[in-house]
Amino acid sequence: MVASNFALQARPIKVLIAGGSYAGLGTALNLLDLCSGRFPRFEYNVEGEPDPRKIGVEITIVDERDGYYHLISSPLVLASSDFAKKAWRRFDEIPALKNIKTIQGSVQRIESKLQKATIIEANSKLPTEVPYDFFVGASGLRRAWPVVPQSLTKADYIGETLSHIKSVEAAANGVVVVGGGAVGIEMAAEIKLVMPTQRVTLIHSRENLLSSEPLPNDFKERSRLALEETGVELILGERVLETLNLTNEDGSQYSELILSSGAHITCGCVIHAMSKSVPSTAYMPQASLDDQQYVQVTPS
Ligand SMILES: Cc1cc2nc3c(=O)[nH]c(=O)nc-3n(C[C@H](O)[C@H](O)[C@H](O)COP(=O)(O)OP(=O)(O)OC[C@H]3O[C@@H](n4cnc5c(N)ncnc54)[C@H](O)[C@@H]3O)c2cc1C
């Protein structure tokens, strides 16, 4: 329907995408393929010929970051400086985006009836209005440090991650990761993998790792065994009541953790791998959101 409606189109259809991570880039590139008479590149079970009709389309991606950050690799990024350098690619360094406009900025508001978005551009810090025919919200969740790096440019990101890795490497008496969910497990395991001589302890408040995940108990048990095989030490069923940041006589810093059993643990670096992520939907009309700020979607 879109193809025939726009067959005689006077101008390209403007598609504005908020977010240039997995969902945003996936949308942009598949749409570009479909509008160019090709199979969408993410569809590998293709049969027959693609629909050859072409649709003029002008795709713009707005992201607060200056590039694509491979977010799910954060635990390895925060352990390996070699890997960290590869996990962020500025949008202007990605050949596949050459026919897509990218803007570094933050979508502040969309007015769906007027079909326009207000963006604060990162460089000018000024609001700009961007008209669109179709808007795609792919702005995901906001996640706290150290679950993911907080930098918005590649240059800052390199500084942020390398300084964290240095403090993990230099931590006398080892590193403690607090929180045995998926992120904490992966962080502890990646540090041990990259720095095998560093002492790594994971503390989790429940008796089972991954306790809040809807996974079978034998999966959780396998995760515990696999983690212990890497050499990570586990303390389960203990809460961290307090973290004291202290200074040695020689001026070096260390932390003391007080656990619910009364035990004290001393280490050179504490990583809190727990945080509640919040939807990044502040720009959406309030009526479209539920009480947790997620977009209310219809089954279709
Ligand atoms: C440490 C970690 C490990 C994970 N591992 C896995 C895994 O192994 N497998 C898996 O399937 N999932 C994993 N996940 C979950 C996965 O990261 C998410 O499902 C995925 O990132 C969602 O992608 P997205 O494109 O929807 O949003 P996001 O990745 O959250 O990206 C949103 C983008 O929008 C931008 N943005 C936000 N607000 C605005 C705004 N107002 N204006 C402009 N831009 C904005 C952000 O800068 C960001 O680039 C992991 C998550 C974490 C934290």
TrEMBL record:
Transmembrane segments: none
Residue span(s) of domain FAD/NAD(P)-binding: 54-273
Superkingdom of origin: Eukaryota
GO molecular function: electron-transferring-flavoprotein dehydrogenase activity; flavin adenine dinucleotide binding
GO cellular component: cytoplasm
A matching Pfam family: Pyr_redox_2
PANTHER family for this protein: APOPTOSIS-INDUCING FACTOR 1, NUCLEOTIDE-DISULPHIDE OXIDOREDUCTASE AMID-LIKE, PUTATIVE (AFU_ORTHOLOGUE AFUA_1G17180)-RELATED
Protein name: FAD/NAD(P)-binding domain-containing protein
Organism: Exophiala bonariae
